[in-house]
């Protein structure tokens, strides 16, 4: 069957290739389907005519991925596809439709099926049933049958993710995924433009943070990939696709020490010349972890600090404290890693002085880069359920659901107040003499290295 997979346009510029879709693509290819991936995010740099692409490829099935802010752009693609060919099966997958499956199908008659959660086996099963239309046998989907919306049982998560083929990098214009100015601005990777790719070392997260949809998408159980396979993939990304910067998308990269140490040892042994980044939790970041990362060639570590107030950390169910935050930063600093971190603005229960405490703390923490997103109750999270139950949602215009925007009533603040606080937080952090000094020091070092 001919399957077109589309990454819709998004509000914010995306870093790297659409990894989830690339996994879907390689799996479907491995069972004999013909695949085309269309990344509309690249339409910011080149013009892409969606109708023309669909007419030319003439797919039997079109599948689009979507996070919450990109849902309207995703729906537009499916609407166009259905108008071009009413027999083309239209499928939505990814975090937003997983959470809002029934609503999305009810409101958009041109969507045939929503694939919930992990998608490889589910969409493959779905395609097997396309001709017979026996969709009731496919676990993990919600679909339309005449005027009814039917929600089948969940599909269990894939037990051994090493069974999945490597993401279909060969179907993507990898050299177009260059790293953008944000990173160049901070002077970390020099002036030369580099190709950026993401990679996954595991799936699932055992934690319970209320603003996060991760464990609903990929489960609470951590499922690790074989370190040898991961390093093999890194080598291919470097040698075949000339990737210069590689980001691990894992939610908690350093949680399973045995697995993580094995990956670091192998990367070091292979001596791969590539810049590596990862995200992790502060309470998994001891001295040895920091040193191992550095030793393997990692340059950047990203932490979700979220707040300097314990009551807020508890409300968010982060499961760590301010001391953990300080210790992690100390360990990362000693290992000479570049440290990025998030602090959330607009946490229910925080007043102005609590927010100011987090902003001052971000400056004292000796980190290199800070973001101050507004806390957004994304569908599929416990926070969304809390906001809905307490009548706190200000809009259900999903295009407004992104970190620059306030969509939840917060006692004591208007939407504009929160946006202004956020802007001031950035000004405050980046005008800090400590930050300016570090920025120039790093750039001078880069210029010297380039000479
Ligand atoms: C990496 C990442 C990003 C990167 C993407 C870079 C890249 N190169 O991939 C960046 C930094 C750009 C990003 C941005 C945002 N992100 Co993000 N991101 C992630 C993260 C950490 C990993 C995604 C990933 O690759 N997972 C691994 C792959 C294998 O899984 P997957 O993508 O879910 O795909 C599987 C299934 O979803 C499904 N599937 C997906 N698409 C499709 C399509 C079809 C047709 C089918 C059948 C199946 C299917 O099958 C796939 C394979 O099993 C996830 C968390 C997570 N653990 O998933 C958050 C996550 C997806 N992000 C999230 C959010 C909120 C955002 C932002 C909206 C935040 C913001 N700034 O406001 C932005 C929006 C993006 C935009 N540009 O507008 C939320 C989504 C919640 C929601 N309801 O939308 C998540 C779940 C994190 C969270 N805290 O809950 N993100
Ligand atoms: S925020 Fe991170 S640690 Fe918390 S549940 Fe999500 S992925 Fe897990």
What does this structure look like?
The chain folds into two domains: 2-151, 3-Layer(aba) Sandwich (Rossmann fold); 178-450, Alpha-Beta Barrel (TIM Barrel), CATH 3.20.20.70. With 451 residues, it is an alpha/beta fold. It contains 17 helices and 15 strands. It has a seven-stranded mixed beta sheet with strand order 2-1-3-4-5-6-7, sandwiched between helices. A six-stranded parallel beta sheet has the order 8-11-12-13-14-15. The chain has a two-stranded antiparallel sheet with strand order 9-10. Iron/sulfur cluster binds next to helix 8. The site of iron/sulfur cluster (SF4) has 11 residues, from helix 8.
Features:
seven-stranded mixed sheet, binds iron/sulfur cluster, 15 strands, six-stranded parallel sheet, Rossmann fold, 17 helices, single chain, 2 domains, TIM Barrel, binds cobalamin, alpha/beta, about 450 residues
Terminal Cα span:
54 Å
Count of helical stretches? 17
- What is the top-level CATH class of the largest domain? Alpha Beta
CATH architecture of the largest domain: Alpha-Beta Barrel
The biggest sheet amounts to: 7 strands, mixed
Number of strand segments: 15
- pLDDT < 50 runs, ≥5 residues: none
Structural class: alpha/beta
Helix content: 25-40%
| Total tally of structural domains | 2
* Strand coverage percent: 15-25%
Q: What order do the strands of the largest sheet run in, or round the barrel if closed?
A: 2-1-3-4-5-6-7
Small ligands present: cobalamin, iron/sulfur cluster
Radius of gyration: 22 Å
Shape: globular
Could you give me the name of the CATH homologous superfamily of the largest domain?
Answer: Aldolase class I
CATH fold topology of the largest domain: TIM Barrel
Mean of all residue-level pLDDT scores: 93
């Amino acid at each position: 069957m001919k399957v077109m997979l589309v990454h819709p346009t998004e509000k914010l510029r995306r870093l790297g290739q659409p990894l989830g879709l690339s996994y879907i693509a390689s799996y479907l290819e491995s069972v004999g389907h013909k695949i085309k991936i269309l990344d509309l995010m690249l339409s910011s740099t080149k013009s892409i005519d969606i109708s023309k692409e669909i007419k030319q490829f003439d797919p039997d099935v079109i599948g689009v991925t979507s996070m919450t802010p990109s849902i309207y752009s995703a729906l537009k693609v499916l609407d166009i596809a259905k108008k071009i060919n009413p027999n083309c099966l239209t499928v939505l997958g990814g975090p937003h439709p997983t959470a809002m499956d029934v609503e999305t199908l009810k409101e958009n008659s041109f969507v045939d099926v929503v694939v919930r959660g992990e998608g490889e086996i589910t969409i493959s099963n779905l395609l097997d049933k396309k001709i017979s239309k026996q969709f009731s046998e496919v676990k993990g989907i919600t679909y339309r049958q005449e005027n009814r919306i039917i929600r089948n049982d969940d599909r269990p998560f894939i037990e051994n993710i090493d069974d999945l083929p490597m993401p279909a990098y060969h179907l993507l214009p990898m050299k177009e995924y260059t790293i953008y100015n944000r990173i160049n601005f901070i002077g970390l990777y020099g002036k030369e433009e580099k190709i950026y790719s993401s990679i996954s070392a595991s799936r699932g997260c055992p934690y319970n943070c209320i603003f996060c949809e991760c464990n609903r998408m990929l489960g609470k159980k951590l499922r690790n990939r074989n370190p040898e396979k991961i390093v093999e993939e890194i080598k291919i990304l470097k040698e075949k696709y000339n990737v210069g910067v590689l980001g691990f998308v894992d939610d908690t990269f350093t949680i399973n020490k045995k697995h993580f140490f094995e990956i670091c040892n192998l990367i070091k042994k292979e001596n791969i010349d590539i810049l590596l980044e990862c995200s992790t939790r502060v309470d998994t970041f001891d001295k040895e972890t920091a040193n191992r990362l550095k030793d393997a060639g990692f340059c950047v570590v990203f932490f979700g600090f979220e707040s300097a107030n314990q009551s807020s950390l508890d409300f968010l169910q982060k499961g760590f404290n301010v001391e953990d935050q300080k210790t992690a930063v100390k360990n990362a600093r000693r290992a000479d890693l570049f440290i990025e971190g998030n602090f959330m603005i607009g946490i229910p229960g925080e007043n102005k002085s609590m927010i100011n405490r987090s902003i001052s703390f971000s400056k004292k923490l000796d980190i290199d880069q800070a973001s101050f997103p507004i806390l957004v109750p994304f569908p599929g999270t416990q926070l969304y359920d809390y906001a809905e139950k307490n009548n706190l949602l200000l809009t259900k215009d999903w295009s407004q659901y992104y970190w620059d925007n306030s969509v939840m009533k917060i006692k004591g603040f208007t939407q504009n107040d929160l946006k202004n606080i956020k802007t001031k937080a950035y000004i405050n952090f980046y005008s800090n003499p400590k930050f300016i000094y570090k920025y120039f020091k790093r750039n001078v070092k880069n210029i010297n290295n380039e000479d």
